[in-house]
Amino acid sequence: xxxxxxxxxxxxxxxxxxxxxxxxxxxxxxxxxxxxxxxxxxxxxxxxxxxxxxxxxxxxxxxxxxxxxxxxxxxxxxxxxxxxxxxxxxxxxxxxxxxxxxxxxxxxxxxxxxxxxxxxxxxxxxxxxxxxxxxxxxxxxxxxxxxxxxxxxxxxxxxxxxxxxxxxxxxxxxxxxxxxxxxxxxxxxxxxxxxxxxxxxxxxxxxxxxxxxxxxxxxxxxxxxxxxxxxxxxxxxxxxxxxxxxxxxxxxxxxxxxxxxxxxxxxxxxxxxxxxxxxxxxxxxxxxxxxxxxxxxxxxxxxxxxxxxxxxxxxxxxxxxxxxxxxxxxxxxxxxxxxxxxxxxxxxxxxxxxxxxxxxxxxxxxxxxxxxxxxxxxxxxxxxxxxxxxxxxxxxxxxxxxxxxxxxxxxxxxxxxxxxxxxxxxxxxxxxxxxxxxxxxxxxxxxxxxxxxxxxxxxxxxxxxxxxxxxxxxxxxxxxxxxxxxxxxxxxxxxxxxxxxxxxxxxxxxxxxxxxxxxxxxxxxxxxxx
Amino acid sequence: xxxxxxxxxxxxxxxxxxxxxxxxxxxxxxxxxxxxxxxxxxxxxxxxxxxxxxxxxxxxxxxxxxxxxxxxxxxxxxxxxxxxxxxxxxxxxxxxxxxxxxxxxxxxxxxxxxxxxxxxxxxxxxxxxxxxxxxxxxxxxxxxxxxxxxxxxxxxxxxxxxxxxxxxxxxxxxxxxxxxxxxxxxxxxxxxxxxxxxxxxxxxxxxxxxxxxxxxxxxxxxxxxxxxxxxxxxxxxxxxxxxxxxxxxxxxxxxxxxxxxxxxxxxxxxxxxxxxxxxxxxxxxxxxxxxxxx
Lengths: 530, 294
What we know:
The complex is a heterodimer of chains A (530) and B (294).
Chain A lengths: L1 H6 L1 H18 L13 H4 L10 H4 L1 E6 L4 E4 L8 H11 L8 E4 L4 E4 L6 H11 L5 E4 L3 H17 L6 E6 L5 E8 L3 H9 L4 E9 L2 E10 L3 E4 L3 E2 L6 E7 L9 H11 L2 H4 L9 E2 L4 E2 L5 E6 L2 E6 L3 H9 L7 E6 L2 H12 L9 H4 L1 E5 L1 H30 L2 H25 L5 H26 L7 H31 L4 H32 L3
Antiparallel strand pairs in A: 1-7, 1-18, 2-4, 2-5, 3-4, 6-7, 8-9, 8-15, 10-12, 11-12, 12-17, 13-14, 15-16
Helix pairs in contact in A: 2-15, 2-18, 5-6, 7-12, 9-11, 14-15, 14-16, 15-16, 15-18, 16-17, 16-18, 17-18
Chain B lengths: L15 H26 L7 H4 L1 E7 L6 H8 L6 E5 L4 E7 L5 H14 L4 E7 L1 H30 L2 H25 L5 H27 L4 H33 L2 H36 L3
Antiparallel strand pairs in B: 1-3, 1-4, 2-3
């Protein structure tokens, strides 16, 4: 039972790889991650689980550093991060404390306002009396991570499937944020990224004959968590769950002061039953009944008004709400809830993307991407046919040539499986890598075939094995040089080139470890004279 | 049906000098072309957008025939180059780097194209400082790749002359396609750099095969060479066929990147045939018959 498995393990391994690739390519569950509000079949591009990069699907890529300066190895002298930020901001005429970040773990102070120059920042650090090792351009790791989260949030909330954001480091050590959004034009993406709103919640309440507004009862920083839009359990509405911070370093916490403000404006008296509504008219800015309202204000404009659930209003009046600090912003439609969540969460990037200064952007229309996808498939098939034709002409023996072509195709199939498994988007450069793999793959198979068939018939396994090993030395040496030549490109940030290098190296590895030994086995079975 | 027979070359008819003269002449010619490019344009090749910075628009050609004229009048700035991609009905308009606000320029140009009734299918914008970074990274990448390959080859064979033969032939395989790119007007982009790196991989294959056959196997020199040639020439011809088909297919469909890669590799592989079986063989023969004897 075990003997045939042991004897043919190379071929069996190849079969396992092919089956594994088929699963990765076609089975549900390995497909692209759908964006929120999108189902799995919408996220899938075509019949396979493969994902396509920008040049094959259309879309926009933006790569830019975050503008700002960071002072490293700062001696804080025991001051709290807040007081350091205050002191540095006080020395900068054109920046406020919001533009100054202090990260004690990294020992860093950063300024994220683009108009602040390096020398101004140095002067401010000196004037505030904090010593530092050096000032570099760019922002801290923490701010980069946070910016990525915000951008990812923007992409998700906008329902753009396949959009991605990542950090890359250039050879000079500078960090770039790379954003890729399939199916969107350049301007749309840049607008989405640069959209920078200020968000706050105001309370509108009846005052004498008119309406008065208490501004800024909650601002963006007061929220501890902001959930994603969710469909309401009952009825047709949707909501965004939020939590307000109920702790403060000093003084009253945001949750407590919000609770006091709500209680003071008489929400509990106004909202007695579920039928009581907020009567705020966004056009006139007046309340049309006598109920106070919460207003969601983005960039100074009221975008939504909310009444309050009687239970919530009561718990605020009783002073118990701030213990948890949660509430839900409820709306009639899911799409509206999505917008609210986006406004609350991803309104602003912690630091600006410097697209015009040091960035790049490129965009390809969806129709062109689709054309390229078809074309590159056709070109790939034609190239493989050319290889097959040459191999047949040379060997004129289907026993040798046919397994050769099948083996080479298996390599590409296994690579496609890898791409689907890793969720690596296919691009033109990756396709070029595939063609390179077929080329080197067939080269190596030619070496094996010629070596094995040289010097007469193969009349024993021993003869075959010794010839096969000799052939494998050359193949191994060639594979090692290719891997060495490609490895720097896998890590350098050269955009398309890393995808090409990764797939060429993967292809060489799959070839040397799996497919080419299997071809040797197949050939042995076909050629060994019993 | 035609069969591919790898011809037996009678190397004994030629001296080492005669054999090496042809590939060396090609190498010198290629270096001269690249040198000329540096003198004339300041760069060793026609640098693409990724390495110069600027804005590139792909404008759809609606086959009315006057798109190029429209382009000449549509933009406030004079385009630095206007190229038609045959087969894809697309005109590529390039504007060189402007130090002031390339992003705004990209927006303006797109608006201007739209106002003139042109449909842009793709926009690329690269800032000059980023472009020079990319160029430096790419050069370092290719240099490391070449160096790594050389070190490995020396480690594999542990003899100076045969290893040098492999490295020299790989160098020439890189230089000749670059010169050909200049003559054919192919731009140096990240995609074509990928093709040049592929040449390193491909060309080393046949060189290693030859060295292995001559140095590590038993048998007489000419027999070893012809054995390696039978396999090596088949390999290279197969790859050339694939690349020529890819280049033709891609130019019919207008996929510029794949066409360029195909052309570069086809040229590089032809150069490799010449370098391996003329220059490399002569170096190995010298090493075998004279170098070792000394």
